[in-house]
Design a protein that fits this description.
The chain is an alpha/beta fold. It is built from 3 helices and 14 strands. The chain folds into 2 domains: about 120 residues, Rossmann fold; about 80 residues, Thiamin pyrophosphokinase, catalytic domain (Rossmann fold, 3-Layer(aba) Sandwich), CATH 3.40.50.10240. α2 packs parallel to α3. It starts with a strand and ends with a strand. About 30% of the residues are buried.
């Protein structure tokens, strides 16, 4: 079973949801799920976007210190989630998108491995090592959240070998996958791994 958090961002029309997935819907994302004939297992939010409070939902005050996305992530933790896919997270408001990226670090602090999915990419937080399946010949970028050292990479056109990736640097932008699997090891720091869905 996969825990899936659906946010009220840019819609992914070909969104893949399995029948055994546990779907947590954040506020206005319910309109999208209804159009897709998908019934979420849990609905949370202040419902300022939706405009009404749906049945069997958990309502929070509009004046709160957390986004609906963070609330959904916390609920996933309470339900025992170890891995979470956060989808429909891009588009419309850049401030919300940047806040959604912070959910990756929040998830790590909660002991959850999370990924963020937009219409165009999948985004991961890497703090030690990661190995994922990818499509060959796609763009991959690494964005340092703090000064980082990448000790090893595999499956990328431009290799990282004890490479320092600084917070104020574009060095990691626009690498390319050369296999259907990539691997990264990081000795220090934190980086965002962004895998584009479209091919080069």
């Amino acid at each position: 079973m996969e825990y899936l958090i659906v946010l009220n961002g840019e819609k992914i029309e070909d969104l893949q949801i399995n029948s055994e997935d546990f779907v947590i819907c954040a506020d206005g994302a319910l309109n999208f799920l209804n159009k897709k004939n998908i019934t979420p297992n849990l609905i949370v939010g202040d419902f300022d976007s939706l405009g009404f409070v749906p049945e069997n939902s958990i309502q929070y005050p509009t004046d709160k210190d957390l986004t609906d996305g963070e609330i959904a992530l916390i609920k996933a933790k309470e339900l025992g989630a170890k891995r979470v896919r956060i989808t429909c997270s891009g588009g419309f408001r850049d401030d919300h998108f940047l806040g959604n990226l912070a959910l990756l670090e929040i998830a790590e602090n909660l002991g959850i491995f999370a990924t963020i999915e937009t219409r165009y990419s999948e985004i991961y937080l890497v703090t030690n090592s990661i190995e994922i399946n990818v499509a060959k010949n796609c763009y991959v970028s690494l964005i340092a959240l703090e000064n980082s050292t990448i000790s090893y990479s595999n499956g990328l056109k431009y290799e990282y070998n004890n490479t320092k990736l600084l917070r104020a640097s574009t060095l990691g932008v626009s690498n390319v996958t050369i296999s259907d699997n990539i691997e990264l090891k990081i000795d220090s720091g934190k980086v965002l791994l962004i895998v584009n869905k479209t091919k080069k």
